[in-house]
From TrEMBL:
Organism domain of life: Eukaryota
GO CC list: proteasome regulatory particle, lid subcomplex
Classification via Gene3D superfamilies: 1.25.40.570
Protein name: Proteasome regulatory particle lid subunit
Matching InterPro entries: 26S_Proteasome/COP9_Components (IPR050871), PCI_dom (IPR000717), Rpn6_C_helix (IPR040780), Rpn6_N (IPR040773), TPR-like_helical_dom_sf (IPR011990), WH_DNA-bd_sf (IPR036390)
Family, per entry: Belongs to the proteasome subunit S9 family.
PANTHER family referenced in this protein's UniProt entry, alphabetically: 26S PROTEASOME NON-ATPASE REGULATORY SUBUNIT 11/COP9 SIGNALOSOME COMPLEX SUBUNIT 2 (PTHR10678)
Domain PCI: 243-416
Coiled-coil residue spans: 26-53
Annotated keywords: Coiled coil, Proteasome
Amino acid sequence: MTIPSIQDADKAFTAKDYQTAESIYLDILNIDINNYNNENRSKSEKIIELQEKSIINLSKIYNINEDESKLIELINKSKIIMSGSFAKSKTSKIIKILLDVLENSFNWKNNSLTNSLNNSIKITNECIQWSIDQKRTFLQQSLKIRLSLLYYKNKNYMESLKIINPLIKEFKKLDDKTSLVDVQLLECKNYFQLKNFIKSRASLTSARTSANSIYCPSSIQAELDLMSGILNAQDKDFKTAYSYFYEAFENYQLHETKNDLNNEIEDNKSIKVLKYMILCKIMIERIDEINPLLKQKSCQKFINKSDIEAMKSVSNSYKNRSLKDLENSLKIYSKELTLDPIIRSHLSDLYDSLFQKNLLKLIEPYSCIEINHICSMIGLPKDVIESKLSNMILDKIIFGVLDQGNGCLIIYDEPIKDESYDYSLEIIKQMSNAVDLLYEKASTLS
């Protein structure tokens, strides 16, 4: 039996004659390896290599042609071909490549992220069952990690955690710290999305502890620092959060690959972290430090990105204490600001803070000002303005009173605190202590 020439298929693939290339690659996959196992071992190994290359190149063809049905058919066919004849390492490699192509199919014109994730979840479940039947434990575990990540991306957090919890026990028994870090980090992300911040911090602490005992790649270290920054930002500790975000940004810059798609993914992560760094600077009111940050060499290639422009627009609004400018920024850069869950979670606080600063800016020159005049300058309803002013008075941010009968705000001078009372109380306290000591000494003498 003559073996189809893979060189002809490669030439057709290079010449973009995908139909001819596909036909030859499929002929190679149809070769029954069992016919050669008994005759010639070296020949059977050569056929396995040809079939491996054929599967990978077919996945590339189906990716280029955006043919989902043929890609799924290839995955199912590959499982039959690889059963028993392929080495475990090669099997894991091929399955990973095929599932990666299927997962990234949301980039295709006639496909969506939801459809891509649903198909990936379905096929990954089938591959897990196949790995159990084939008794390939390590492949099964890696596929389960992938499945839990797919559930996380699909916002099905409880399903993701159902897979993670048994995996953590397994990896602890095997002392597989590398896989344990990945799973604990994913557990941290799931709990964060479920708003269970206590368990999220506990998972992150466990992941950091596991990572300290092994060599941790820069990409994983970046993910750990990113989650640390997000959790600190959640606690309003933006100074500490900024330092973690900076570390994450540096680690993402270190992680470069030969794959353009992977580099693009890393760049997107770097942009996201840079957005969080700018957010921290805004929240701690260090607006002047944003431009020097963006002038750093590592930030140069991102400064013209729409996400960074959005954050710069927000920082300028905050610097000018202009609520109207912030609202305009939210309209212009709606996608960049409101679709990011971390940015969105802090926007309400930022809005309230800017609202407060804007009111202080407007009433600063007056001792009495009409509320209607404030409404006309800010462009918000009267009830919203009155509610905010009353809260600011109660919080002692401004000293004054709302005269609702006349529809105005009367502002008082900030009362000067007389420190002589505090000093007097401190003197009395010290004298009381001295009298108590003298009484104790007198008691011992008698």
